[in-house]
Write a structure and sequence with these properties.
Layout (H helix, E strand, L loop, with lengths): L15 H23 L15 H13 L2 H11 L9 H22 L20 H27 L3 H8 L2 H26 L13 H27 L6 H29 L10 H19 L3 H4 L2 H25 L13 H24 L12
Helix pairs in contact: 1-13, 2-4, 2-12, 2-13, 3-4, 3-7, 3-8, 4-5, 4-13, 5-6, 5-7, 7-8, 8-9, 8-12, 9-10, 10-12
Length: about 375
């Protein structure tokens, strides 16, 4: 439809912001080059007690959840036939594409023998009963699916109308895969903690409920990231914000969040784990920070009038992103009780790589929306 037509923003690519982002990404690239030649021990604080750190906990587990905007919007538009959200599809898919691509790359960064990564996909080495195998294969497949889903943007830019028309006839198949694959691996990321058993603190060891909790929060984070990106694009590119659409989206987010909190608290009560939240410990402090980040958006978005206010939408999105971040960091790092004598805090090179990956993602997003038809034409004028 005409109102859904997209157009490049145009404008300069070389700005102080993009130069800074490029510099941060370059620093990360240099560190990674050093890591590939000298090993993980040269740039990380990983150990036998903590065989994975921030590159897995954030770059993969958190990063892939924050990249669920495309998945969440695809659920609404193509599965539940909510066509009014169609203008959000391309920007959400673009952010998801970069987030997942970098999450997949981060798995390679964290492998000790990274040159054997091809073993994952070779039948002779595959471990089909492994949760990690399922996550690796699903994420890899989803990355390819998203590039195919996004390819009409390139075809449109190149004026290849015939090729785009032919692709549209089979695109439904890839859209279906784009819903199934993240549903599988986002829930399986929760299953990883099930395998750890008592090594995970009771506040985060929800057993068989973990796959559901991780899937619910992945969809929540997808909605939150879409709202956050719309607000950031509105400010950064000086364009109008799709407040009416985002207000309706936040209504769906509100009810899903309420359901998540009911399930989360009920699980803690039924397992008798809620008492751990009142202990004098780092885990208890982190738990309450996580729960506050999830609970406050319910207060901020409690009425239709509140959901129509851009400031409340933005703050609620940031809080939900923080809650999802803390849920995963708490489960995979803070609440990971590997045994006495083991401690982990990311080394400076680890942090710089993570910061550099985020910078590269933002930089790539800016380049794409300025040169490709991603954002809706109705508000595409850049100043």
């Amino acid at each position: 439809m005409a109102e859904h037509a997209a157009a490049p923003l145009g404008g300069r690519l070389l700005t102080p912001v993009t130069v800074l982002l490029g510099a941060l990404a370059a620093v990360a690239g240099i560190i990674l080059l050093f890591r590939f030649f000298h090993g993980l021990g040269a740039v990380t604080n990983l150990s036998d007690g903590y065989p994975w750190g921030i590159w897995i906990a954030y770059d993969v587990v958190v990063g892939s959840a924050l990249a669920c905007g495309g998945y969440a919007i695809a659920l609404l538009v193509y599965i539940f036939n909510r066509g009014e959200y169609h203008p959000l599809v391309r920007p959400a898919l673009l952010a998801s594409l970069f987030g997942y691509t970098l999450a997949g790359a981060s798995v390679i960064f964290d492998l000790g023998r990274w040159w054997n990564v091809w073993h994952i996909f070779w039948p002779g080495y595959a471990q089909p009963n492994s949760v990690m195998f399922e996550v690796a294969v699903c994420i890899t497949a989803y990355i390819f699916v998203m590039w195919i889903e996004f390819s009409p943007v390139f075809l449109e830019k190149l004026g290849m109308k015939d090729a785009r028309r032919k692709l549209s006839k089979v695109l439904f198949f890839f859209i279906a895969l784009g819903v199934v694959l993240p549903s599988m691996h986002q829930s399986s990321l929760g299953s990883l903690l099930v395998i750890f058993g008592r090594q995970i603190h009771p506040l985060w060891q929800a057993g068989w409920l973990l796959p559901l909790l991780y899937l619910m929060t992945a969809v929540l984070l997808g909605f939150a990231v879409v709202i956050f990106e719309a607000a950031a694009a509105s400010t950064g590119f000086r364009r109008s914000m799709e407040t009416a659409i985002l207000a309706r989206l936040s209504g769906l987010m509100f009810w899903l969040l309420a359901a998540y909190l009911v399930v989360r608290v009920a699980d803690l009560v039924l397992r008798g784990a809620l008492g751990s939240a009142f202990a004098f410990s780092l885990e208890a402090v982190m738990f309450w920070l996580e729960m506050i980040a999830f609970a406050l958006p319910l207060l901020l978005l409690g009425s239709r009038a509140a959901r129509a206010r851009p400031s409340r939408l933005f703050v609620s999105a940031v809080l939900l992103m923080a809650g999802g971040f803390l849920l995963r960091i708490n489960g995979f790092l803070v609440g990971y009780q590997t045994g006495d004598g083991w401690h982990y805090f990311p080394a400076l090179p680890e942090l710089l790589v993570t910061i550099g990956l985020i910078a590269f993602e933002v930089l790539a997003y800016i380049v794409f929306v300025r040169r490709l038809p991603v954002l809706p034409r109705a508000a595409a004028a850049a100043r």
